[in-house]
């Protein structure tokens, strides 16, 4: 009898379990070889579907039935558990976890088969009845326990073991998907086809060679920094070092310099890909645009909410690469990276094994979420020590993270303080308290000025005071991403042409957004935020530093949440201690003080408590539920902003719900709070719904139906006291 694993939708093509097991094992073995013993991947591939050898599953496959009615995933887990118990090798328990979750997600282990909840692995294996699948022994080779080394001897902590399980799990899940994909696609799968790392390096070298000789003193310094990064990447003396910092001042060419280091190090060490991790989608789009100009748009894979790939011009390859990061250059967000690392679901974990043997650049590393800073440090440590990753912590305002790492990071740039002095193009001046009217009056005096405030409410109010003036722009997350992108293009054009341009923005413009104003006003904030804001002033050094002023002010009556208040207090403390609050010394002092005061909040959700309760009491599902970087108390509202958005609206109303369509929709969404802070108030979403401004299509899609509720200057007209959350997705 032939035992089948898959049928195509027409039931014409058949794939046997043996064929699928062999194909999956080949993939998983290759993936695992990048960071561990290949045999672990082979075992996972061979044994993951042995439950399909039951008559019950074969009947379900051939004759139909309720999906999931026959449990086939528990069989492989049981067999590996038994083997582990017999040979006393705990590695088999780790492998069993991977197989148990290869469809539904990695479960919590549980601590007792009788008392654990039903969703735990121990309960499932001890309290579930599985159809007879013993015939698998006639088809698949038996496992020789002596050929399977005990990996747990090298993984001395619960965190390390859980991380390892996720990586192996990723190997299995991706291998399973790929082999099934090949079968269903009749052996032709449109993946890969990207240029390799070596070709990328040649293209970047060719592009950067045009910078020499430098056209200005600043460009000469940028060339020096670029050369240092290239040289450091090619330095054989540091070939075994995997943790670096890159401290380049704002305007110093950090994007290209970091990429050049990564490419040179990847070629030198044989690493297979570069992963560029960025905090905001607005910066991603800007940096990815630079990369596309150099190495070609079809070779840059962006993985974030606002990217949309169709099936033309190689985009299908890129769309597929977002599933498993099988491409030489990946550009993604903090949120995507961190949530994937701690995820337990197959779709999110599938990419993890491809992080091994990579160069990872954390751009604007100071923007790593403080609530998860210590878990992130542990992740970086694991990747650099056990998975052959080289990590670069990259910023213009380097936080003092050395104290969190056992192995000290190496600074790529010689004498960062020297370059800070060279690139110092602004002077920070403290104004004290102002009313909104006083602030508006000051802004009117400038033909080109940027004002950054702390809330969307304030941004809108200041804009209202200035909107009758010539060329005044507003930027906030009450505007959908497509709208903000259009406004930023207008702003850059005005600045380039020397025209009048006054911009009122929230902090979304601070980090990495390439704009250059002669004067900046910044509401009192965390020190790193002030320094980032200063990076939008005299960015190209066209004016004297003493004349390029960043005015820091406080607005009367504005309040902050507890965390923001603490950051402001530390900033004010630094103001008293240092004449130049943007100096490297002041910034280091700021982060040292802040981290001491935030000690408990650096692992706010107490993830480590679950990671220190014994190596076998794994909490995959529980920890995955803890990692929610974006506030869940929000709803996305789709804005039919332009003709493209109206096409999307028609498709949504017709019932279409493809991944591509949902991604396209993301460029036209504004997030607002779904629930109010207390029972006596009303959220922005509730107000819009009560006033018939929005229509709920389904639980995931809400559409703005009143054009008057969206202004082409300020965006969605909501109560800014309870507005949206930002653009971290």
Q: What is the secondary structure topology, with strand pairs?
A:
Elements: E1 4-7, E2 14-16, H1 17-32, H2 38-47, H3 55-63, H4 73-87, H5 91-100, H6 121-127, H7 158-184, H8 197-208, H9 217-233, E3 243-247, H10 254-269, E4 273-278, H11 281-295, E5 301-303, H12 315-324, E6 329-333, H13 334-341, H14 346-349, E7 358-363, H15 373-386, E8 390-395, E9 410-411, H16 416-423, E10 427-434, H17 436-443, E11 448-452, H18 456-466, E12 472-475, H19 481-496, E13 501-505, E14 520-523, H20 527-534, E15 549-555, H21 562-577, H22 584-597, H23 607-611, H24 620-626, E16 634-638, H25 643-653, H26 659-666, E17 669-673, H27 684-690, E18 694-698, E19 701-704, E20 710-711, E21 715-716
Characterization of the model:
The protein is globular, with a radius of gyration of 27 Å. The chain is 42% helix and 13% strand. It is built from 27 helices and 21 strands. By secondary structure, the protein is α/β, with parallel strands linked by helices. A hairpin with a 2-residue loop joins strand 18 and strand 19. The longest helix has 27 residues. The chain has four domains: 181 residues, Hypothetical protein af1432, CATH 1.10.3210; 217 residues, Rossmann fold (3-Layer(aba) Sandwich), CATH 3.40.50; 174 residues, P-loop containing nucleotide triphosphate hydrolases (Rossmann fold, 3-Layer(aba) Sandwich); 89 residues, no CATH class.
Task: Provide a concise account of the structure shown.
This protein has 27 helices and 21 strands. It has 729 residues and is an alpha/beta fold.
